[in-house]
């Protein structure tokens, strides 16, 4: 019996190609997924630029077809382009990508029709169990059909219907695609807009020769920051490997926190839909719920992770959701995450007024933060309990355990400490009025965590 515990994650499937994921395993995953979504007429499949992606996508398609379910391939795609395909065609989908992971990795993001997420509780556990048991194919079933479509232009046109940039002043924007799928989608999305794109690393290359395609790591946006200052650009945008996340720097090359982007986009969405609900995870800045409320919206706090965000959006009818990790979710995009649409919102906001981006985003950045700090620990539960005991007894301190441990102190500063699902790590995020207060609280928590 196979053991696939290492590759079936909370929200997707991911592992080393050849060692943990090979064509036989992936074919069987395709067959199990087809059984899960039956009687869907077809599954839409896209893949990124990694050298292993076309072969794995083909093996998955074989497994689907053997179950009597059709396949529509869309070829090279960003993850949000696959979500567009799933939503617009109303079909379940599979995206082959390992996002920002190194070249030796690959993976599969699965969704049901309408881009509805498939996670551990909504199908992944069932698929894993079937593949580990190596369940046989259904006998006597006529194979499904194989079709292919090019949806890039349709995807780009749809995004442009959701954000109006026709009245924008001319902008010069540096885009770092990190040799990932942004190099494929950005030229089509920005075609005809009053925006001059200065491209960086648009060549599709799954070996990531220039830097890791993870813009949340500061070392990976150094080139973008330098180029923005060098060419006098109005802003810079970096995408991760599968281009579903975007990270923004202002005209000075300074990073704009994802929480500020969440607040900015939320205000724009609330202008279209007054009184709407906006989802934010518990690690986003508290400026987000403050600003949402100030603009007449209803902020709703949720756990970290796209399946929780999307579920809460469905329950509440939320118009928008944002995470600290630069994932942005839109009701008008099937509640799926799309960094490209968030980038268009930022550029539209910038282009419809004459202040630089640094001044535009300053009003959405009210507090100082630590960023995520990881600590390797022997016993996650024991360290969490020690922190809870230390802080829980303090006067006027609020504690909740919605996701890990969140502690808010009397002066308004707060921190969240969460255990990693996949590694022996505790992840700490701290926010306070200024950098000195952040450093003081950070060091106090880490002294307990790392004792």
TrEMBL record:
UniProt domain Alpha-D-phosphohexomutase alpha/beta/alpha: residue ranges: 7-136, 154-253, 261-367
Cofactor: Mg(2+)
UniProt entry tagged with the keyword rRNA-binding: no
InterPro entries, alphabetized: A-D-PHexomutase_a/b/a-I, A-D-PHexomutase_a/b/a-I/II/III, A-D-PHexomutase_a/b/a-II, A-D-PHexomutase_a/b/a-III, A-D-PHexomutase_C, A-D-PHexomutase_C_sf, Alpha-D-phosphohexomutase_SF
Pfam families for the chain: PGM_PMM_I, PGM_PMM_II, PGM_PMM_III, PGM_PMM_IV
TM region positions: none
Entry's Gene Ontology BP terms: carbohydrate metabolic process
The entry's keywords: Isomerase, Magnesium, Metal-binding, Phosphoprotein
GO MF annotation list: intramolecular phosphotransferase activity; metal ion binding
Domain of life of the native organism: Bacteria
Keyword Metal-binding annotated: yes
Domain Alpha-D-phosphohexomutase C-terminal as annotated: residue spans: 372-446
The family this protein is said to belong to: Belongs to the phosphohexose mutase family.
Protein name in the entry: Phosphomannomutase
Organism from which the protein derives: Herbihabitans rhizosphaerae
